[in-house]
Amino acid sequence: MTRARTALAVAGAVLLAGGCTVANSGSAAGADTLQIVLPEEPPTLEPCDASLTATGRVVRSNITEPLAEREPETGKLEPKLATGWRQTSPTTWRFTLREGVTFHDGTAFDAKDAAFSVSRTLDSGIECNVDGYVFGDSEVTAKAADGSTLEVTTGKPDPILPLRLSFVEMVPTGTDTGSRVREPVGTGPYRIDTWNQGINLRLARYAGYWGKAPDYAAALYTWRAEGSVRAAMISSGEADIAVGLAPADGAGDHAVEYPNNETSYLRMDAGKPPLDDLRVRRAVNYAIDRKGLVASVFAGLGKPAGQLVPDGVTGYDPDIRAWPHSMKRARALIGEARADGVPVDTKITIIGRNGIYPKAAEAMEAVQHGLREAGLNVEVKMLDVNAWTEYLLRPFPEDAGPTLLQAQHGNQAGDAAFTMEQIYGSKGAQSSYGTPGLDRRIARAERAAGRDRQERFAEALAHQGEEVVRDAVLAHMKGIIALAPRVSYQPNPASGDEMRLAAVHPAD
């Protein structure tokens, strides 16, 4: 597997007397440039990895576009580069493509590009995150029926294929199929202008865009790991939008809270001792004080959770509650496992990710404290996004011992299919463990439609939480975004993973 291993370099902040000035922040960018500060630099702008937060919030609907787009506020699938679609057989869908669309290099977008984009995402060998996250092991074939008609065939009936394809960003046929591209060519309202690695990324408005032109002529992204620095950049006028903030970062009246659709959790290496023992995995869950974690570390920006999908997603089961905090039960389970010869003293490493959410390291230290108190040998290793991704996606590092991976999952698509197979399936791209019984339940749910789909996914989630216990789900999260007075933007549940620049306007 070839992975982009671009070094993540973060330019330092320079604090000057009388205010906060951040080196190379682009503060002189001009009134027609929207300035956004992010917690981390994207490791790549590869469109087929746009389901990853760091990449998606820059790429999706800004540089590249899909055939259809789910509106976060309504959950409805709306036309984008396709004007409509219909199912012509149980396994075949036809998409009518929008005419008059061009890529940033001036070439026309047509059905050959659409078919190529689907094939590149699913069959090129790049091992795109979208492939595992959205499609799993689905068999999908795309071909151009004519210049403006795309025909997509699946190996088995798929009632939500148009929704799945909304995660496939369109690229021209000349795009590299052997490796990830750093600076893609798309059809979006913005094109890549300059990328100064470790400093900033500038997007320029694309004059040939098929839709309504966005208000800002350019967008300038910078990255600062410290939330307090990002908040200070808003206060000092050096940035217009800052994301991934915590209450303690000091954004003040500039801060806006919103439900961000993210669920924080710990993925367990359930195939490695001592985590291969169900009692130990249950003990991990009992040992974590979720209410305390939300109240203190998350400063109330969340709600203790027991399942990986939030309310509003097909499959969400309101009867699944967060695990209660019981150190007595945790210690008893560890004691039982120890008595049966389970090597509970084996070192378990929490693999954390800097910047995944505010106070990420503090959250893992709190978890570590609880697990040690329960009788487990736990260490914390915090990594930047590139190194952390090696543990997120298959194939995982072979020399790692048993790990708990700090992760966060946002189901923007609104269907548990985009959670279950990739995260819990035996062969899922982000799955460290699965069972035949859970695989069967996931497969049955994916074939279902309507109310039956809801019930089957709820059953699969309940089975995972009660019998498999592959995770320690922590909380359904809220986010904080800071806005400068000169801009107007209404955050939505998808804002943590994608930020549509066209939705940002100058304030009245």
TrEMBL record:
A Pfam family hit: SBP_bac_5
Keyword Thylakoid set for record: no
Gene3D superfamilies xref list: Dipeptide-binding Protein, Domain 3, Periplasmic binding protein-like II
InterPro entries: SBP_5, SBP_5_dom
Residues spanning the signal sequence: 1-23
UniProt domain Solute-binding protein family: residue ranges: 76-391
Superkingdom: Bacteria
Coiled coil regions in record: none
Keywords: Signal
Entries under PANTHER family matching the protein: PERIPLASMIC BINDING COMPONENT OF ABC TRANSPORTER
This protein's name: Peptide ABC transporter substrate-binding protein
Taxonomy of the source species: Bacteria, Bacillati, Actinomycetota, Actinomycetes, Kitasatosporales
